[in-house]
Amino acid sequence: MEVPFELASPTHLQVEVTEDCNHSCFYCYNHWRKGESSRNYMNLYVAEKVSDIIIQDIKPFIVTITGGEPFKNFETTKYLSEKLGKKDISIGINTNLTEAKRRDLEELLDINKDIYLLVSIPSVKRENYRKITGRDNLQKLFENIKNVSQIGIPIYVNMVAHQLNKDEIFEEAKFLLEEYGVNSFAVTPMLRPALRTLDKMDLNAEENKKIYEDLIKLRNDFGMNTAILEVVPKCSVPEELRESLIFSRGCSAGKISSAISYNGDLRVCAHAPFSHGNLLEKKFSEIWENMKPWREHGYVPEECSGCLEIPECKGGCRFAAYEEGQLLNKKDYRMTSPVKIKNFSKHLKLNIEDEYFATPFKFRKERENQYTLNNKSKLLFTNKETITFLEQIQKKGSFKISEIPEGPLREKAIKFVNILYNKKFLELK
Fold first, then answer.
1. Where are the alpha helices (DSSP H) in 16-166?
2. 1 pLDDT above the threshold of 60
3. Other CB atoms closer than 10 Å to residue 354's CB: what's the count?
4. Coil, helix or strand at residue 95
5. Among 16, 76, 254, 299, which lies 20 to 30 A Cα-Cα from 260?
6. How far from chain centre, in Å, is Cα 232?
7. Can you tell me the distance from the alpha carbon of 208 to that of 17, in angstroms, rounded to the nearest whole number?
8. Rounded CA gap, 390 and 425, in Å?
């Protein structure tokens, strides 16, 4: 069912509408953050040109509007949310949520019903929050979480974990669930940023393990949707935790995702400190071609040779602690050693009488009989027959494996349904 092929363009874009931010978090991955916040903003002229290219040439499923703090450039944020939303592109806004006004949030939902917020909350303790962000506006954040909940915009929380808040993970998530009904909670273990040297604030292997265990416990005890938001080298994860559902991200830079700067520069990802070309000066197809080595695993470290987890994590982050002049295939400092033994069994033992329904999805044609499907949480690279199969289930209402006669075809169908179920294109009725 899944066939190897190269995407014609990213499926997910990050658009930086400003480099300005009202917070000064020491761990910020923005490569320009070297002291005072930048005052560069994407103006409406650039936003118009960039959005036309996104719609006509890139055709992503999801665009995340980010910064800096995007609510410091609300007019451009609103413009992109409305224009791209009209083309059936899902819009996320990556924000600390302290610059937004209630009327801004209401306006966003009015112009785009398919919008969500990814909210950065480094701590729910006032003193620690102030120490991390450099601002004393935690109460404003809480007010806006309440506003978002009342207005009806989906919210996903991300917490960057480091030495100052590593012991707050479980309690913060539980607090947000009980006080505000926040059910989706992700953690990003702090990554040493590119082109900047930080004091030793990131976590060691044992500290990271405790975070993974906290997220798994939150998922098991409270049914929360928990995840690790950025790529983690799988070799650095304890073997007994590696197959957990909290790990779902590999390096997507220049493969399924890219980032657009305030001035139209296209970078392989938001962590990248350099551009491959400017969308206002070059055709997107030319810039995308320049990124081809990223899609051919051209920068996977030699130390990863023979590792069975390469298809999952792609060798970790190429810009972790990146310094000027370094090779991009340098070892991610979090790596340990190649994984030589792996449990490949992710397939469930299916009851052939179980009923499945097909979840809503979008699809995009890459080339002849090669399609990418998206259901907001997962991607599937496949063919036209899969789309037809899912559309038939949607039309019919449900599907049972027992409907297929015993024999090789049913065995094939069991494997097929397992993949679709694991990627959430099928759910049990």
1. 44-53, 74-85, 102-111, 126-133, 138-151
2. no
3. 16
4. strand
5. 299
6. 13
7. 32
8. 8
Cα distances (angstroms) measured from residue 236 to each of 163, 298, 371? 18, 22, 33
DSSP β-bridge partners for residue 16: 66
Q: Under a CB-based contact definition with an 8 Å cutoff, are residues 25 and 132 in contact?
A: yes
Q: Count CA atoms closer than 13 A to 259's CA, side-chain side.
A: 21
The secondary structure element, H or E, covering residue 160 is strand 155-161
Q: Work out the pLDDT band at 108, boundaries 50, 70, 90.
A: very high
Q: Tell me the C-alpha distance between 215 and 189, whole Å.
A: 12
Rg (CA), the chain: 22
CA angle 378, 251, 11 (to 5 degrees): 45
**CB-CB neighbours of 76 under 10 Å:** 24
Confidence (pLDDT) at 2: 45
Instruction: Extract the tokens encoding 100.
Output: 């937004």
- Is beta strand 370-374 parallel, antiparallel or unpaired with respect to 362-367? antiparallel
Tell me the sheet residues that pair with 267. 259
Cβ 47 vs Cβ 80: under 8 Å:
yes
Exposure of 328 in the CB half-sphere (CA atoms within 13 A): 16
The alpha-helical segments, DSSP class H, found in 327-407 are 384-396
- Judged by DSSP in three states, 41 sits in strand
CA torsion angle for 43, 47, 49, 54 (degrees, to 10)?
160
| Kind plus residue range of the DSSP H or E element containing 222 | helix 205-222
Q: Is the pTM of this model over 0.90?
A: yes
Measured distance CA(129)–CA(332) in Å, rounded? 29
Task: Say if residue 425 is exposed, middle or buried (CB neighbours under 10 Å; 0-12, 13-18, 19+).
Answer: buried
Angle formed by the axes of helices 44-53 and 74-85, nearest 10°:
20
Please, which residues bridge with residue 372 across strands? Answer: 364, 381
Per residue in 177-207, pLDDT (tens digit) is 999 999 999 999 999 989 888 778 999 999 9
